[in-house]
Write a structure and sequence with these properties.
Blueprint: E1 2-5, E2 16-19, E3 30-39, H1 41-48, H2 55-58, E4 71-79, E5 91-95, E6 103-106, E7 111-113, H3 120-124, H4 127-139, E8 147-151, H5 156-167, E9 171-176, H6 181-186, E10 191-194, E11 204-209, H7 216-220, E12 223-231, H8 244-253, E13 260-262, H9 270-282, E14 289-294, H10 298-306, E15 313-317
Parallel strand pairs: 8-9, 8-11, 9-10, 11-12, 12-13, 14-15
Antiparallel strand pairs: 1-2, 3-4, 3-6, 3-15, 4-5, 5-7
The chain binds NADP nicotinamide-adenine-dinucleotide phosphate.
């Protein structure tokens, strides 16, 4: 089968399109024929091996696995002996291992059925980013009428976070560069702050910090007295620990202050995917696909993401 592989960590040049053996499945796995694969920041992290602390898990000197990609949508073509949730022929979406390939393995607990009317490309744009946006809204316990600031609103996670906070009845202020202002308004943001021109102002019941790695005191200064800060991501926190230092600081401070300071990790479980699928099928949620690329152009897709050019999501179409 054709697959995007990389034998070492590095920039997009390390990605190669190769013919490799189809992956074998274990008893508790399924094999998915991939129709579309979402490109998210996680793929960039796995490609570069940064922040370096993650190499303790992914391989110290070189990646333990050459496969890349998590988000996928496709058809199940084989099921392990102990899988009861899905059968051959099911159309699914979720996360798997080595999604940038014609076939990928996945665990049933990280898949859901793709609803009729939702295309494979749309579904592949959902799992990690959609589930993370949902996690942010749930962590902050967003209520009707509350004000929510979404920093990094024009990216993959942000585009879902804006929509889901809006669906929960919040008034959303989106923070993004000026070129993405119309995009985030189309997703339901009431106000937009172009952070390249204007400092962040206002008071919010919840802040989702998805990008920018702004200091905790600055973010807490924008919260209402009992507001919640949800740290989702931070790209410029250094090559070794990334944004993790700020997450640890927030967790340590949380029990001692009135603000709630949270840094949750998303796992995109079946129940989250089913919830998102219901919203998509009902037309309440949009899969914000900026553009698609063929599998062979995965490196260009990742370069575009890295350069911050993407409004919402990129998807590889097989
Ligand atoms: N906690 C978790 O479980 C979890 C799960 C998924 C992802 N993440 C993390 O979440 C982060 C975002 O992921 P993503 O997939 O949404 O990435 P993405 O699609 O690349 O989006 C990031 C967005 O941030 C914006 N941005 C860059 N610098 C900014 C700044 N200084 N202030 C405000 N916005 C800025 C960029 O656009 P503009 O600059 O043009 O506005 C871009 O749209 C990453 O660090 C990722 O690793 C965490």
């Amino acid at each position: 089968m054709k697959a995007i592989v990389r034998e070492r960590y590095g920039s997009a040049e390390v990605l190669k399109l190769r013919d490799v053996a189809r992956p074998e499945i274990g008893d508790k796995q399924v094999l998915v024929r991939v129709e579309a694969a979402g490109v998210d920041r996680g793929a960039w992290h796995m490609m570069t091996g940064e922040p370096r602390v993650m190499r303790l898990v992914t391989g110290l000197r070189r990646p333990r696995s050459s496969a890349l990609g998590m988000d996928l949508a496709g058809e199940i073509v084989a099921v392990g002996a102990r899988v009861t949730e899905f059968a051959v022929g099911d159309q699914v979406f979720g996360t798997g291992t080595g999604a940038f390939a014609e076939y990928a393995t996945a665990k049933p607990g990280k898949l859901a059925r793709r609803p009729a009317g939702v295309t494979a490309v749309q579904a592949a744009a959902v799992p990690v980013s959609g589930a993370t946006g949902l996690l942010a809204v749930r962590t902050a316990k967003v209520q009707k009428g509350q004000s929510v600031l979404v920093i990094g609103a024009g990216g993959g996670v942000g585009a879902y976070a804006v929509q889901l906070a809006r669906l929960a009845g919040a008034r959303v202020t989106a923070v993004c560069s000026g070129g993405k202002a119309d995009f985030v308004r189309s997703l339901g943001a009431e106000a937009v702050i172009d952070y390249t021109r204007t400092p962040l102002t206002g008071r919010y019941d919840a802040i989702f910090d998805i990008a920018g790695n702004r200091p905790l005191p600055l973010l807490r200064g924008l919260l209402t007295p009992a507001g919640t800060l949800v740290l989702v991501g931070a790209e410029n926190g250094g090559a070794v620990f990334g944004g993790l230092g700020r997450n640890f600081h927030a967790k340590a401070l949380d029990p001692w202050v009135k603000h709630r300071l949270k840094a949750p990790l998303s796992i995109a479980a079946t129940s989250d995917l089913e919830h998102l699928a219901t919203l998509l099928a009902a037309g309440d949620l949009v899969a914000p696909v900026d553009r698609t690329y063929p599998l062979a152009e995965a490196a260009d897709a990742i370069r575009s993401l890295e350069a911050g050019r993407v409004a919402g999501k990129l998807v590889l179409e097989l």
